[in-house]
Each structure stands twice: as C-alpha cells, then as structure tokens.
Amino acid sequence: MTASPSRLTTLRDYIRWAVSRFHEQQLFFGHGTDNAWDDARLLVLGALHLPWEMADAYLDCRLEEDECQQLNALLRRRIEERVPTAYLLGEAWFCGLPFIVDERVLIPRSPIAEYIERHFAPWLPKTPARILDLCTGSGCIGIACAYEFPDAEVVLADLSFDALEVANRNIEQHELEGRVYTVQSDGFDGLPGQRFDLIVSNPPYVDAEDFAGMPEEYQHEPELGLACGADGLDLVRRILAEAADHLSEDGVLVVEVGNSQVHVQALYPEVDFTWLEFQHGGHGVFLLAAQQCRDYQALFRQRIKAR
User: Are 114 and 128 in contact (CB under 8 A)?
Assistant: First the structure.
C-alpha cells in the first residue's frame, strides 16, 4: 500500500492518491466527514498541523521525506485497519471547537450541536444555571454548552473512568476547570439529589441489529458508548424514569436516540415527545419539558418493570 515519496511529493498528490484508495477500498465516512475528499484532506492537513481552511495554492507545496513517511504510515492505518481519521489525529471538532479524542471515547458527531449553537431556542424557558451532560464521553456536548452559557455550572457524567480521563483533559484544554467538572455515574446514580435546568444526553442507543451491521470503523469505538440492548433503549428507559427527579421546575431534557427513534415511539405511544428538526442533517433527538417528565414518570417507571 505504501506510496513512494519520490512519486508523491506534494499535499495535493497525497490527497488525490488517498481519495482514490479510499474509494477503491470502500472506506466508510461518518466520523466528522461524509466523503472521501474531505476525509483525505482532513487527514493529510491535520497530520502536518496545517489548517483545514488553508488556501488551495499551498497544496502544491513539496513535502519533506519525514513528512511523507508520516503520511504513508497514517494512510496505511486508515485504509488497512479502518481506523477513523479523528483517532489517527487525536482530535475532532464539535461546535467549532477542538476536542482531544482517542479510542476510549466516541468521536463527536451529534446533531445536537446545532441546537447548542442556537441556545436550544425556542425550547429553553430561561438561561440555565446548571447543565448536565449525561453519558458525556469526551465532554464535547457539555463543554460546548459551557461556551454558549458562560455563567452556567456544567457537570459531565459518565460510567466509564477512561472516558472521564479524556473529558478532564478537554476541560483543561479549554480552561474551564472553574465551572465544568466530571462525575463518575451510572445513569443518574452518581448524582443523588442534584437538579439541573438542562439535561442533555447522547447515551448508547444502537440496537442489536444495527450494531451487528455497523462498518468496521465503528469497531474502533468503545462498545459501551454504542450498544445498549436489543432495542438500544436499556439506558434510555432509565433516563426517562428518573429525569423528573433531576430536573428543575422549568428544566428541559434532550436525548439523542438516532435510529432507535422507532423503538421509542413504539414503546411510549402515549407520550408527546418533541422530535427536533435539523437544518444541517440529523434525526432521532427528542425533547421533554420537566412537567412532561413528571406527568409521565409513573408510565416511564412502569415500562421498565414490564420488561
């Protein structure tokens, strides 16, 4: 697979060559890009610490031999091992912000980013003083919320100690130690008595059928962050049953369930979920007001017991 540095000499050469190989080997793109050209450009420029928005004229710059060797090694891993580009670079972007990522956490890609940037308008009745990012992973959702709500205290909660180590590195990178902190928690178990004005969660929600058919790239991500039972809702059921106990009077719950939206709707046909619409792509994110969580709490608890 290795390209000869004597034949590939410029950034443009490597990007073009990578696009051809990515198509030839039928790689999957879904971890920050959706096509071979963007993925190749991100990998080549990112590996050499060059900005994505760099003018195309610089693509004809010749590379040093050590740079060619570095690119050859990374491209080999991307193609032969199907390692997602974000893991190869150790960085992913979310809400226009850089985040440290490795194989201990999912690669940020939630469509919730669109609503974070919109301050969850028109759904939040007031500016939140306390925010919970439940199942935080890298911390990207909670940290992005901290930027948009600069006076809010933000809690990043996750079951995985490994994930929380990454989240803490991101808190430090963004210099938010004063009002963003991590808590080890299985669902809400590690947050007794705590209430929040906004709870945002991108929990594991992939059902067994979808998980079995996922492209190889997803096998590099932690299974704990993806799969969650036959219908993908093992944790979502718990979140719904307990959310009312952790929301403030006018709080809001936002949960991403992706393709498992069909299972949510089948399991709770009585519940008037607000399914958010996205201008930039995405689906399967519901919103409930605190009052709805209280009104339906008995039902949510019943559906857990009925399993």
Answer: no
